[in-house]
Amino acid sequence: MRNFEFYNPVKIVFGEGSIAKLKSLVPRDKKVMLTYGGGSIKKNGVYDQVKDALSGYRIIEFGGIEANPEYETLRKAAEICRKEKVGFLLAVGGGSVLDGTKFIAAISNYAGEAWDFLDGKARPSVAIPLGSVMTLPATGSEMNANAVVSRREMKEKRPFNSPLVLPQFAILDPETTKTLPESQRINGVIDTYVHIMEQYLTTDGGAWVSDNLSEGLLRVLVEHGKAYVEKPDDMTVAGNIMWASTMALNGIIRLGADSDWSTHAIGHILTAFYGLDHAITLAIVLPGVMQVMRTNKKSKLLQYAKVVWGITDGPEEERIDKVIHKTEEFFRMLGAKTKLSEFGITEDTPTLVADKMQSIGLLPCGEHRDMDYDIVKEILSLRK
Ligand code: NZQ
Ligand code: ZN
Known about the structure:
The protein is globular. The protein is built from 13 helices and eight strands. It is α/β, with parallel strands linked by helices. It binds 5,6-dihydroxy-NADP and zinc ion. The site of 5,6-dihydroxy-NADP has 34 residues, from helix 1, helix 4, strand 6 and helix 5.
């Protein structure tokens, strides 16, 4: 078990009807910028609930933050924040709105080029405080310090993180998920699942508490993921999926353990090149990582097979084959496609992605930093 320090100050306000609590969470003396995406919050009543809760506040709005939030859009918002002297940001929407808002918070008072935070040249020293109403359980962004920003003209999608952009609070009202399209429900379960896997399927390092938490969360997704996709009105299911997605990436389940973010690293490049939804890239890549890295991950693969899927019989290599198949089958059963060719992608993707990862310094990756250019190519070659 590895040494660790842990601090997570995000206040979670969970439950139906909790948007009304915004008035006790958002500071009244600050000018607030309400940020949102393409308009889902106006169609499903979330916008009205937020405005009701904050009546009497000084609020300006910035809508139009794209799925996979776009760098240029966020720079425009930051410009407005500077001009209007915004003192608090309230992100209302999915992970893209929240990630975009974190980036706005970080760049608004930065005199240099905003890209510096994404290519690692600089780290923010101040940020506008922010809070969130999360309407799409998936990313865990509501309780972490990460944000991912896309720059389409450069075919780039890059993460950044800073404790300064941890939300002060996150409202999780499962009612908000009722209007999610089926595709986003599928995405939410898969993104959550893969976040857990990337913190769990690494070395067998004696981090039993984290392992058990991960296995428990994975079982919740296996048992209830399909119901979440099929029964949008079941608030017990939605509430549990929502909390699982927060728990999957708020830092708790990785404590004392190793992480392997290679599936996400490869997935971000696939989104940057082909515009695929984030979670779909993960459903494509993870089975390939499991297959190619099966020797390194053998002990955890066998534990995962046993505890999450009840696979205990047969020789070890056969159990590993079975559980890799089960994992992909689970994604497909939810309704996701898991092969590049199913999206009409036939070009030389393995080489293109490995080249890009090499050129921006993402290689080697994996828990042992032993996944190199050739391994990335091998993984994607299996996923055509
Ligand atoms: O833009 P609007 O109109 O709001 O519609 C959104 C969007 O089209 C819609 N939506 C959200 N809530 C809804 C709703 N539609 C109906 N009813 C609701 N209640 O869903 C669409 C997708 O939204 P988006 O925010 O893009 O999805 P998601 O939450 O999956 O976020 C994806 C982004 O988060 C990043 C991804 O890379 C991607 O850019 N991630 C962020 C992470 C983090 N900060 O820790 C970790 C993740 O691994 C991930 O990388
Ligand atoms: Zn993710």
